[in-house]
Structure formats: structure tokens, C-alpha cells
């Protein structure tokens, strides 16, 4: 585990940070809060989440020092001058991305930018990082050939969260990313995730969500190198009268890149679920393979589920598939349980758990399984 | 006491009358084979007895161990001791075979007011039974019937039957889709199951299953009722003559 350290010396603030805020602030000022009608599809209103403006405070910067060797570093030394210079060049790529965040949600989150920043400049190293999501962005640039296990948690005590994470994976870098969005019944989460992969980089996302009254999640992934690979497994449980609004944009900008997405969601009574998964394959990207599957299970007759898997392809010679289902528990499955003596309530609980279990994976799978199972059981209790 | 007593049973599916005056009595220790042409109501009988939704009894009675079966929900019938081996076992991804078995055994123990089964013992017993049925024990970790071949699904049904040890087993065309080796394995499982305290109702199209499971009675079902009953020799006669001479 790499411990973050606070950089209190403003004289050592890297150039990119002192340059970026002005651009960013003007970018944010130019953007207005997007009304629900203007958003691409089924978005929820963001008005109430619009933040106050923030200014750069160098003393708030938190850096994760570059690890030494191939083992995870446990030291908490200050980054030396060489490391900071390396940061300057690494993050040059990031500034325009931040200033031109693709969606309202990203602009929203960026308004809080520069309060706290985690940076992992990389090197050929294996690093494990536990991140407590809070109102601050995280920027991680993973060096060539490096490996990162990133585990993020949101605790039920969090009532309001605006949060964004930016990952840049250099050539051959590998990230296993677990996100456990386990909010409470009063939790409102707005989360943005951007991932850029260079050649032969690999990114796995295990995305688990449940318990939030309102959860909006935007994920933008750019596969910009040959052999880049992305795998997303998502399991969501939306409790009664809650709202999940989830949008994934997978952009294949280079030939021979691969992506696979599988997202399963259970909607409780009176809940609202929106899923929009878009696969974009740009011109001149032959050999791309991209798959998207979204399955939704309603536990009642009054849930609202909107799902839209999209394929937008500008290159021949690609292999793609996309699909979505919305349904209730299968009567034949319930009868199979009944024929073995299992009552309907228990059968529904086990089937709901099983529906999610196929998408619960990754380093935090065990915890996610317990939380999701408990909530699935609660959702199946008669009211 | 009579295990199963069906009297003048009329039943329908989707408002279409299928069973039309069927009567059948099964005593402990007996194996009854139900044969008949397609559409005669064989599978309907198994589904009606097990309480499958969509199958409704319009008249007649069904008593199981002296209790009116028609008043019981499907899971209550199973807890009372009725087991249906499915013609087409369903696949349930995400719920492992072992979880499914454990839930079934826990329900049975709870109903009988007995202690919950020991998980380690359940796993051990299931693995041993799987081996005896020529089923890879590792399959128990997979989703219920997930990715199983037709023969593996049927053997899994027999495994569940042996684990649950019901009073009455309804085997709905358990032999369909089985090669000769698998047929022998399944038949061996059924023969291990049968004893003087339980009963078996064997729904089948073909006489070949009865080469391996000796029935006490063979019944021919046509147009929703039993038109002929006999012993094993009736099955051989059917093999020779077909069903037409009984149904015309």
C-alpha cells in the first residue's frame, strides 16, 4: 500500500497545476448547468448538485510518491525534484482532457478540481491503493508496464458526494479497479470516471453499487492504443424508491483494441434505473472487438427501467455485439425451487442474489457479495 | 397406507382439458410406469401432481398419504415428500448446484422440525453421489444445470432425488435424450432409491428404460385417461405393436 503524503511546500507545485486552474475555471464558467431536456438521454437533473467555485490551494495537494523497484512501496517520503519534473511532463496530456470534460457531470465534478489530487507517476511497479471516495478528484497516471490495484469505497455515512477519477494507462500498464458504491438510504452520489489506455494496456473494472437514494455514474473509456483491453463487470441493486443513472461511453480509437461490458441491475419497488451504454468505434480501427450486455431484473410491477445499448461504428472488419434485457424473475426458476420444497420468498432471494452474483467479481467481491445479498434479501421481504 | 390415490382426475392447461378421468393408485414399494403416445397427458399428470402453476384440477381428487394434495402449494407438496424429476431441467446461472441443494435440504429439515443439515456433510454426500452417477463433482460448484449436457442434467435430477430422499418420485421422461451408458447410470440411481417405503411413477415413451428398471405396473395413457394396465409384459407388447391397437 502506498501512503499519500501532503505537499505543503507551494514552491514545489508542478507547473501544470499552476497553469491548469485558470483554464479550468474559465471552462467551468462558460458552462452552465445542463437542463435535463438537453442531456443526451434520460439524465436526471443536476441543478441541486451544482457546487460552489473552488480555488487552488497548494497545501491541499496530496501526492503518492513513485514506488521503487517492483514491490509496493510503503515509504512516505516527500517526492523529490526529479519526481516532480516527471509529473510535469506526464500530466501535460491531462490538462486538455480536464478542460474539455465531455459531459456536464464531468464539468460539475471538475469544479471541485485541485482541492486534492493523488498522482501515481508509475515506473515498472506493482501498487495497491485504497481510496475513500470524497469530494475531490483523483488523477492516476500509471507508467509503462506498471500494475495497479485500485480499490474505492463509499461508506453508507456519505450523504453527498461529487467525485471524479482520471486514469491514464501507459503502454502495457494494467489496472484492476474495484468500486464499491455502497451508500446509505440518504446518499446522493455523482461520480465520473475517465480511463485512457495506451497500447497493450489492460483495465478491469468491478463496479458494485447499491443502497443509494440517488446515484449518477458516468464512465468514459478511451482505448487509444493497439491491443488495449477493457473488461467491465457491474452489479447494481437499486433499493425501493431509489434512482440509478448510469452511462458508459466506450471509445475505440485504435485498431485491435478489445472491450467487454456486462452490467446486471436489480430494481426494487418504485425505483428508477437508467442505463446507457455506448460503444463508439472510430474510423480506421479494424480488428476491434467490443461487446456490451446489460440485464435488468425488476422485483415489482412499479419499477421504471430504461436501457439503451448503442453501437456507433465507422470501421469495417470489427466484431461487436450489444444487448439488453428487462424482465422479472423467471417463473420456471421459481417452480424449480418450489419442486424441491423451497418457499417462494427464499427462492426469490436466492435468484436475486444469483442474478447479481454473475457480475460480482474482483478484489472486493466478497464484501460486495455480502452487502448485495443482504440488500437483495431485504428487497424481497414482503412490505 | 396408500401413498398416492388419484381418482377420476380431470385437469386442464390454458383452459384446454388434458386429463379426463384418470385414476391411479400407488402403494409404498411400487414402481409404476406411465406410457402412451405423444399428447396423451403423461407429462401433464406429473406436472399436476407436483403443483406446477398453470395446471389446474377441474374435478376429481388426489390424496397423498391421506392428505388432499390439491390444497397444497407446489413447495408444500415437495416438503410432504413428492419429487419431480424434470423432463427439461432449467438452468439457473448465479445459483450454484450446491447452494440449490443446500436450500432444498434446509427447507426439508425446517419443515420436519429437525436441525439444519451440516454443510460439510452435505458437500461430502453430494460429491460421493455425483461420482456414483458419473457426474464430475466439480459441477456442483457451477450454476444449477448451467452448461450441462442433456444427460448431465438428467443425472443431476437423480442426484437431487437421492439427496432429498422423497416418499414419491415422479420421473418425467428421465430417459429422453440419454445414451445407453447414461441410461444405465440413471436407472442404477433409481434402483438404489427404490425401497419398500417409497414409490416411483415413471413417465416414459420407450420400453428400453424398463429393461433396467423393473416396474410393478405398466399403464397406458391415452386421451387423458388410463386405457390399459398390466405388468412388464404390457410394455413389451407395446414395443411390438405400438399404441394404435389400444387407442382405436
Walk me through the structure.
- The complex is a heterodimer of chains A (383) and B (248).
- Chain A has 383 residues and is α/β, with parallel strands linked by helices.
- Chain A has 7 helices and 17 strands.
- Chain A has an 8-stranded parallel sheet, with helices on one face. A 7-stranded parallel sheet of chain A has the order 4-6-8-10-12-14-16, with helices on one face. A two-stranded antiparallel ribbon of chain A has the order 1-2.
- In chain A, helix 5 packs across helix 6 (344-357) and helix 6 runs antiparallel to helix 7 (365-379).
- The termini of chain A are far apart.
- Residues 1-22, 27-39 and 46-122 of chain A have low confidence and may be disordered.
- Chain B is α/β, with parallel strands linked by helices and 248 residues long.
- Chain B has 8 helices and 12 strands.
- In chain B, the strands form 3 sheets. In chain B, strands 6-9-10-3-11-12 form a 6-stranded mixed sheet, sandwiched between helices. In chain B, strands 2-1-4-5 form a 4-stranded antiparallel sheet.
- Chain B is globular and about 55 Å long.
- The mean pLDDT of chain B is 94.
- The interface between A and B is medium-sized, with 24 and 29 residues.
Biggest chain pair contact, residues each? A-B, 24 and 29 residues
> What would the principal axes of the Cα set say about the shape of chain B?
globular
Mean pLDDT of chain B: 94
Provide the low-confidence segments of chain A as ranges: 1-22, 27-39, 46-122
User: Can you give the helix content of chain A as a percent range?
Assistant: 10-25%
The chain-level mean pLDDT of chain A equals 72
Major sheet summary line of chain A: 8 strands, parallel
Q: Rounded to an integer, what's the Rg of chain A over CA atoms?
A: 21 Å
What portion of residues of chain B belong to β-strands? 25-35%
Question: What is the radius of gyration of chain B?
Answer: 18 Å
Query: Helix segment count of chain A?
Result: 7
Measured distance between first and last alpha carbons of chain B? 36 Å
Strand order of the largest sheet of chain B: 6-9-10-3-11-12
Strand order of the largest sheet of chain A: 3-5-7-9-11-13-15-17
Amino acid at each position: 500500500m502506498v501512503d499519500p503524503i501532503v505537499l505543503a511546500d507551494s514552491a514545489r507545485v508542478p507547473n501544470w497545476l499552476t497553469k491548469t486552474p485558470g483554464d479550468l475555471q474559465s471552462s467551468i464558467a462558460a458552462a452552465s448547468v445542463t437542463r435535463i431536456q438537453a442531456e443526451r438521454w434520460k439524465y436526471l437533473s443536476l441543478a441541486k448538485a451544482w457546487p460552489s467555485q473552488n480555488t487552488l490551494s497548494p497545501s491541499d495537494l496530496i501526492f503518492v510518491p513513485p514506488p521503487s523497484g517492483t514491490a509496493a512501496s510503503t515509504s512516505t517520503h516527500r517526492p523529490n525534484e526529479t519526481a516532480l519534473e516527471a509529473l510535469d511532463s506526464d500530466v501535460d496530456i491531462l490538462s486538455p482532457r480536464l478542460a474539455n470534460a465531455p459531459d456536464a457531470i464531468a464539468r460539475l465534478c471538475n469544479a471541485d478540481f485541485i482541492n486534492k489530487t493523488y498522482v501515481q507517476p508509475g515506473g515498472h511497479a506493482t501498487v495497491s491503493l485504497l481510496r475513500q471516495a470524497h469530494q475531490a478528484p483523483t488523477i492516476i497516471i500509471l507508467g509503462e508496464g506498471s500494475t495497479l490495484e485500485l480499490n474505492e469505497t463509499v461508506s453508507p455515512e456519505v450523504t453527498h458526494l461529487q467525485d471524479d477519477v482520471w486514469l491514464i494507462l501507459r503502454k502495457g500498464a494494467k489496472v484492476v479497479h474495484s468500486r464499491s458504491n455502497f451508500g446509505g438510504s440518504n446518499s446522493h452520489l455523482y461520480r465520473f470516471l475517465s480511463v485512457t489506455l495506451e497500447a497493450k494496456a489492460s483495465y478491469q473494472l468491478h463496479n458494485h453499487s447499491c443502497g443509494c437514494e440517488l446515484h449518477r455514474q458516468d464512465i468514459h473509456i478511451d482505448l487509444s492504443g493497439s491491443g488495449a483491453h477493457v473488461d467491465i463487470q457491474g452489479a447494481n441493486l437499486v433499493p425501493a424508491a431509489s434512482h440509478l443513472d448510469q452511462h458508459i461511453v466506450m471509445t475505440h480509437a485504435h485498431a485491435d483494441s478489445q472491450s467487454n461490458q456486462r452490467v446486471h441491475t436489480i430494481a426494487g419497488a418504485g425505483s428508477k434505473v437508467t442505463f446507457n451504454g455506448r460503444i463508439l468505434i472510430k474510423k480506421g480501427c479494424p480488428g476491434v472487438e467490443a461487446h456490451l450486455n446489460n440485464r435488468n431484473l425488476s422485483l415489482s410491477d412499479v419499477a421504471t427501467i430504461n436501457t439503451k445499448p448503442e453501437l456507433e461504428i465507422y470501421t469495417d472488419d470489427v466484431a461487436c455485439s450489444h444487448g439488453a434485457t428487462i424482465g422479472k424473475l423467471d417463473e420456471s426458476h421459481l417452480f424449480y425451487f418450489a419442486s424441491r420444497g423451497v418457499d417462494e420468498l427464499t427462492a426469490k432471494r436466492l435468484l436475486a442474489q444469483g442474478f447479481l452474483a454473475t457480475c460480482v467479481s474482483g478484489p472486493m467481491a466478497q464484501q460486495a457479495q455480502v452487502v448485495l445479498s443482504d440488500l437483495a434479501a431485504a428487497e424481497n421481504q414482503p412490505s | 397406507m396408500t401413498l398416492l390415490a388419484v381418482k377420476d382426475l380431470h385437469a386442464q392447461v390454458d383452459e384446454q382439458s388434458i386429463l379426463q378421468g384418470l385414476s391411479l393408485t400407488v402403494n409404498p414399494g411400487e414402481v409404476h410406469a406411465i406410457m402412451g403416445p405423444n399428447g396423451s397427458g403423461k407429462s401433464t399428470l406429473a406436472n399436476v401432481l407436483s403443483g406446477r402453476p398453470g395446471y389446474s384440477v377441474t374435478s376429481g381428487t388426489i390424496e397423498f398419504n391421506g392428505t388432499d394434495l390439491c390444497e397444497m402449494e407446489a413447495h408444500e407438496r415437495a416438503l410432504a415428500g413428492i419429487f419431480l424429476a424434470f423432463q427439461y431441467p432449467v438452468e439457473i446461472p448465479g445459483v450454484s448446484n450446491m447452494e440449490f441443494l443446500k436450500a432444498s435440504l434446509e427447507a426439508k429439515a425446517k419443515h420436519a422440525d429437525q436441525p439444519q443439515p451440516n454443510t460439510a456433510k452435505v458437500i461430502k454426500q453430494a460429491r460421493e453421489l455425483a461420482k456414483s452417477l458419473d457426474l464430475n463433482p466439480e459441477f456442483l460448484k457451477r450454476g444449477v444445470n448451467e452448461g450441462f449436457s442433456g444427460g448431465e442434467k438428467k443425472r443431476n435430477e437423480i442426484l437431487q432425488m437421492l439427496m432429498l430422499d422423497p416418499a414419491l418420485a415422479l420421473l418425467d421422461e428421465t430417459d429422453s435424450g440419454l445414451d445407453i451408458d447414461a441410461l444405465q447410470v440413471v436407472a442404477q440411481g433409481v434402483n438404489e432409491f427404490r425401497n419398500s417405503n417409497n414409490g416411483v411413477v415413471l413417465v416414459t415413451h420407450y420400453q428400453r428404460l424398463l429393461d433396467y428398471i423393473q416396474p410393478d405396473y405398466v399403464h397406458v395413457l391415452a386421451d387423458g385417461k388410463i386405457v390399459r394396465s398390466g405388468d412388464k409384459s404390457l410394455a413389451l407388447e407395446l414395443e411390438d405393436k405400438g399404441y394404435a391397437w389400444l387407442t382405436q
